[in-house]
Specification:
The complex is a heterodimer. In chain A, 72% of the residues lie in helices and 0% in strands. In chain A, α10 packs across α13. Chain A is globular and about 70 Å long. Chain B is an alpha+beta fold. Chain B has two domains: 297 residues, MetI-like fold, CATH 1.10.3720.10; 54 residues. Helix content of chain B is 69%, strand content 7%. Chain B has a four-stranded antiparallel beta sheet. A two-stranded antiparallel ribbon of chain B has the order 4-5. The chains are: A mainly alpha, B alpha+beta. The interface between A and B is large, with 52 and 54 residues.
């Protein structure tokens, strides 16, 4: 939009405010008229009183024992302590692959890798009670830092292709459930029932599993909705709108309780898996709508051109339409992931020990904790806040990196 | 192509039939009844709050209706309050005052990145349940009393003659709206000033005074809660479950509505305001005739989908024990032992609510498109 004929100097107010003298900045932004002056004084007053009350509460009144007593419960729940190395190994695998992705794709993956590294380093060195404070657990966390760096070095090498890294991710995501669940008694990996899993581990499994499984389903539904076959189209529309029209709790309730009524007794699906099915179905309907937005954004000329060079319908969809459509909807998918991450708390309704439920049971675990709801739920809220804020921050950077919304 | 049509139809319909057959077979095998005949049986369970008369001798159908009305109650009140709060926060986000702007931003970020269920737990378990018992109630001007058992408000109620007042007020409102529309059209057609706002207001005023006179100047009495024995009687009581759900839903949804309002107002081109000034519109006219109508076009569709979200999110009531549609449905499943019929009733009700909402949205969108073409 540069206009060659425009020789006027740029207006002064587009300069960043940091170039203004502080006193001028305060005048312009806080006291530019009487109304704003009143607002500023009121705001400062309420910030002072609320801030003082919050700080006093957090540092003097609040009793943080239910949080500091045994923080590892919030991470893995009741996962057998002698088998914790399996969770550690899964984490190590994820760290290594994140490092590799950083080396391969740089950019946004760098932020992810650094955030993961910083988070694990903090977990490794903060003073903590219970098992989290033990040397072994600290080493579990800190060993991830060299793993990320090692992955980075390997990922930067020429012979490591993007496809190889993706295959690594897919392989480890299918491997981790087996590693955590085990292969049966008497073997090297004794079975750990999913009812023993808990905390952030379950929250992340539901969120990551839900988004990974729902993505292909969502793409299929979006394509089905645009299909020229009326039966497929009707089915897709009915599925998408039907799921989007009801609350997630009803779907979780259906997949966890109603579904079980109709399966033969010998086919007992694990409770965590049933919840995951519910999350997946729910998320797929929303993903389908996001992808549909991307499909509509692909210009018709692209399809005509593909036909003109002799590609058939299938090839056109797979090689021309989908790559362009999916690129356009990546930010929307990340947004969907964040809301799925927050929605994992709803599995509390079908009695799964995710982070919030762990908080609730810790309250009941000790008579002295019974009245400390505020401390526990504020802590859980803070964990969710930090993780979702970081993710939405990363997705904003991702949007800039992809140039979505720019022409 | 024709072959693909037939094959796809056979696969999809076949799969649906297969599922239906399996459901029926499993139901027969386990003695699960799929009929709706239980609707008229007595429900046999109490519901903690209801807008219509209900006790455990009423039927399952009535119990279901109680749940639906409770969902609608919290949704409608919630939508109104969330829209007001969201608009205020959205406008604060556009403030030229840096501090106000950042406070609004902090409010939005604080609520959008925390799961609603966690917020509801904080409001219910950590705040509403920690209020003092009835004896040491917090007293607010009104008088309003706040304690563990809920919120007691002084509330105006109609006297015996109050019905006349209410009817005349309603008639006055309808007449005023008709007059408003008619006079406005007349002005648009003739170009003469018809004072539509003033005339409609006068109609309302006359009908209100008339109603007051007819009801012997005593249309309302104030029902004030009084502490008697161990608890309050009288006044309007809101249960802590309703209160916590309402506050949580309103604060959470308001954060999303604030972003919608901000985006809507920012979408109006600055040139529009300058052009309005150039043709001589006064500031209020600029706002009312130029800025708001254009901003509304951007704001209304996402706002409606937020109201739908609020309605669906009210199903989290289950976790804090408010007797909403889903919660009552779950009790009904246990009481009647009819999982499938009850559950399909609940799902269909939510679906109908959301279909009505998207119908309204579509009608509104179509209306906007037409006005765009004609301009």
């Amino acid at each position: 939009m540069t206009d060659a004929g425009n020789t006027q100097p740029a207006p002064a107010d587009i300069r960043p405010p940091s170039q203004l003298k502080p006193i001028v900045w305060v005048q312009r932004n806080l006291f530019n008229n009487w109304f704003n002056s009143v607002l500023t004084v009121l705001a400062l007053g309420s910030i002072y009183f609320i801030g003082r009350a919050v700080l006093e509460w957090a540092f003097f009144t609040a009793d943080w024992r239910p949080v500091t007593h045994n923080p590892i419960l919030y991470l893995v729940g009741q996962y057998p302590r002698d088998q914790l190395w399996r969770v550690g190994a899964s984490l190590l695998l994820v760290s290594f692959l994140t490092g590799m992705s950083w080396g391969k794709w740089k950019g946004i993956m760098r932020s992810f890798a650094l955030l993961l590294g910083i988070g694990l380093a903090i977990l490794g060195i903060i003073p903590a009670g219970g098992q989290l404070g033990s040397l072994a657990v600290r080493i579990f966390f800190l060993i991830n830092l060299p793993a990320i760096y090692l992955g980075y070095l390997l990922g930067s090498r020429k012979f490591v292709t993007g496809g190889l890294v993706l295959a690594g991710w897919l392989l480890s995501f299918s491997l981790i459930p087996f590693l955590l669940r085990g292969t049966g008694e008497g073997t090297m990996l004794p079975t750990v029932e999913t009812s023993m899993w808990g905390g952030l581990l379950v929250t992340l499994i539901l969120a990551v599993g839900g988004i990974l499984l729902s993505f292909p389903l969502g793409v299929l539904l979006a394509l089905g909705r645009r299909s020229s076959l009326p039966v497929i189209k009707l089915f897709s529309i009915g599925f998408i709108e039907g799921i989007r029209g009801v609350p997630l709790v009803t779907i979780l309730f259906m997949s966890s309780i109603i579904l079980a009524l109709f399966l033969p007794p010998e086919l007992r699906i694990d409770r965590l898996v049933r919840a995951l099915i519910g999350m997946t179905i729910f998320s797929a309907a929303y993903t389908a709508e996001n992808v549909r937005g991307g499909l509509q954004a692909v210009p018709a000329g692209q399809i005509e051109a593909a036909k003109a060079v002799g590609l058939n319908n299938f090839q056109t969809t797979l090689f021309i339409v989908l790559p362009q459509a999916l690129r356009a909807v990546i930010p929307a998918i990340v947004g969907q992931f964040i809301s799925l991450f927050k929605d994992t708390t709803l599995v509390i309704i079908v009695a799964i020990n995710e982070l919030l439920n762990i908080g609730k049971s810790i309250l009941q675990s000790d008579v002295e904790f019974l009245q400390l709801q505020f401390e526990v739920f504020i802590f859980v809220a803070a964990v969710f806040w930090v993780l979702s804020y970081l993710m939405s921050f990363a997705s904003r950077r991702l949007e800039t990196a992809l140039g979505v919304g720019e022409r | 192509m024709a072959a693909a049509q037939v094959i796809s139809a056979i696969i999809v319909i076949g799969a649906l039939i297969w599922i239906a057959v399996n459901v029926l077979e499993a139901a027969k095998l386990r003695g699960l009844s799929l009929g709706f005949d239980f609707i008229n049986d007595p429900a046999g369970f109490p519901i903690s709050e209801s807008v219509i008369p209900y006790d455990d001798s009423y039927t399952f159908g009535t119990a279901f209706l109680v749940g639906l009305l409770n969902t609608l109650k919290v949704s409608i009140v919630g939508i109104l309050l969330a829209t007001i709060l969201g608009t205020i926060v959205g406008l604060a986000r556009l403030s030229t005052n840096w501090l106000v702007n950042k406070i609004a931003l902090a409010y939005i970020e604080l609520h959008r990145n925390v799961p609603l269920l966690v917020l509801l737990f904080i409001w219910y378990f950590a705040i509403f349940n920690k209020l003092p018992p009835a004896k040491g109630s917090l007293e607010l001007p009104g008088p309003i009393y706040l304690n563990q058992r809920g919120l007691y408000l002084s509330w105006p109620r109609l006297t015996e003659t109050g019905g006349v007042f209410a009817i005349s007020l309603l008639v006055g409102l309808i007449v005023a709206i008709i007059v408003w529309i008619y006079l406005r059209r007349l002005r648009e057609r003739s170009g003469r000033s018809t004072y539509f706002a003033g005339v409609s207001f006068a109609v309302m005023l006359v009908s209100a005074v008339l109603g007051l006179a007819l009801s012997a100047w005593q249309p309302l009495w104030i029902d004030i809660p009084v502490f008697e024995g161990f608890n309050f009687t009288g006044g309007l009581r809101l249960t802590p479950e309703f209160g916590a759900l309402l506050v949580g839903l309103v604060m959470y949804t308001a954060a999303f509505i604030a972003e919608v309002v901000r985006a809507g107002i920012q979408a109006v081109n600055l040139g529009q305001m300058e052009a309005a000034k150039a043709v001589g519109l006064k500031p209020m006219q600029t706002l009312g005739l130029v800025i708001i109508p254009q901003a509304m076009r951007v704001i209304i569709p996402p706002l409606i989908s937020q109201t739908l979200n609020l309605t669906k999110n009210s199903s989290l009531a289950l976790a804090i024990g408010y007797a909403d549609l889903f919660n009552v449905g779950r009790i009904m499943i246990n009481q009647a032992g009819r999982a499938v019929p009850v559950f399909s009733m609940v799902m269909v009700t939510y679906l109908v609510l959301s279909l009505i909402t998207s119908l309204i949205l579509n009608i509104y969108n179509r209306k906007i498109q037409i006005s765009e073409r004609s301009s």
